[in-house]
């Protein structure tokens, strides 16, 4: 009898995932991350956008509040009215996708998470002990922390923050290496696209023909987040690795795509061929769930015969490339067990909105949404 009930529950969950779309609210809908949420969800078979919310220019249709976008939205989305947060009612939705600034996330996301799950691009909740920095391609095993978060805070929902966009490509490219050989040290220099700063982040006068060699708080975020993403989950707690990591982050005049020069040393002695094998054969921890936004091969590795790749203009021109991390220029260095490589990832897709949708797909399949 117990087996039959379990089977019925599983079948019902599969039915609900396939047939009954989850109602979604998009909060901070006009920014770049908010637009990426909408683009990834507007024709999604498991989710339905039923509410758009913003802080300014509310009361108008979505198409009338957008200053600029190269995304094509459905007519239904374009005509949907953008409402103020005062009108938000959590019981009208199954999940909220939040793309608000971090200073606003403390109040907004907390109030929503009391009742329903929140998928967030903001940094506010990333560093709490009971909140994973969720990148399911790498750390799907951290999913159990959401239940602990609910118990600790007496919430019906939870907050699921994704990593900083700079941390995403770094984490995905290094994780297969860390898992197999360990890491003794990591040094990274980033060349980050202007879209990572949002519409108001960098003026054209500042960035055109220029490089800005500082992005406030970015380096500290990378140092904290990489270790938390790689942490082992034991007895309800995350145990962080102890390798040192340094980062220097720069803004460059590229529209989309964060490029990184990464220098690392492995704990175990290894070879170029062994690292190439780990990178090229790496698969997401979510592969068994057949998630719509999870690439079959999360890493695209260029050989030593292609030293000029990856490049943002070449790699990121196709929509399907937005969830792939590109790795090239892998070479040995003079340091013990030392190597270097170039990494490129799409900062507003895998690094923000679409990456959040992937997290939501996984959480739905796990029965948490």
Task: Please explain how this structure is put together.
This protein has 369 residues and is an alpha/beta fold. 33% of the residues lie in helices and 21% in strands. The chain is built from 13 helices and 14 strands. The strands form three sheets. The chain has a six-stranded parallel sheet with strand order 3-2-1-4-5-6, sandwiched between helices. A six-stranded mixed sheet has the order 10-7-11-14-13-12, with helices on one face. Helix 2 (32-41) crosses helix 13 (353-365). 47% of the residues are buried.
Strand content: 15-25%
* Helix share, percent: 25-40%
Provide the spatial order of strands within the biggest beta sheet: 3-2-1-4-5-6
Given helix and strand content, the structural type is alpha/beta
Q: Roughly how many Å apart are the termini?
A: 27 Å
- Quaternary: single chain
The sequence of SSEs as H and E is: HEHEHHEEHEHHEHEHHEEEEHEHEEH
Number of helices: 13
Global outline: globular
On the 0 to 100 scale, the average pLDDT is 93
Low-confidence stretches: none
Instruction: Please provide the count of β strands.
Output: 14
